[in-house]
Design brief:
The structure is a single chain. By secondary structure, this protein is mainly alpha-helical. The protein contains 5 helices and no strands. The protein has helices spanning about 5-35, 40-55, 55-70, 75-80, 90-115. α2 crosses α5 (about 90-115).
Amino acid sequence: FKDDVFWIALKNTFLYTIIVVPSQTFLALFLAVLANKGIRGQTFFKTSYYVPAVVSSVAISLVFIWFYRGDGFINYLLSFFAIDGPNWLNDPTFALPAIILMNIWTTSGYLVDIFWAR
C-alpha cells in the first residue's frame, strides 16, 4: 500500500469502470431503441453499430492508434479550426479518456444486440 503506482492504477481502474460501464450501457440501450424504430436505412444502421464487435481487436486498435497519433486523423481535423491537438496516448491527461472512448465504441454494438434480443 506504500507504492504510489498502485494508487494511480487503482484510481485509473476505478475511473475507467465508473465511466465505461454506464456510458456503454446507456449508449447501447439508446441505439437498441433507435434500431427498433422504423428508421430509414435501418439495415445499414444495424450493420454499422455491430461492426466493431466482430472486427478484430487488433485491427480496431490500429485504427485508433492512427486516429490518436500526434499527426493522426483527430489532430488533422482539429487543425482546420486552428487547434493544436495533444499527443493523445502519450499525455496522461488525454490517454485515459482516449482509451475510454475507444472501448465504449467497440463494445456498445455487442450490448445493443443483448438489449435488442427478444
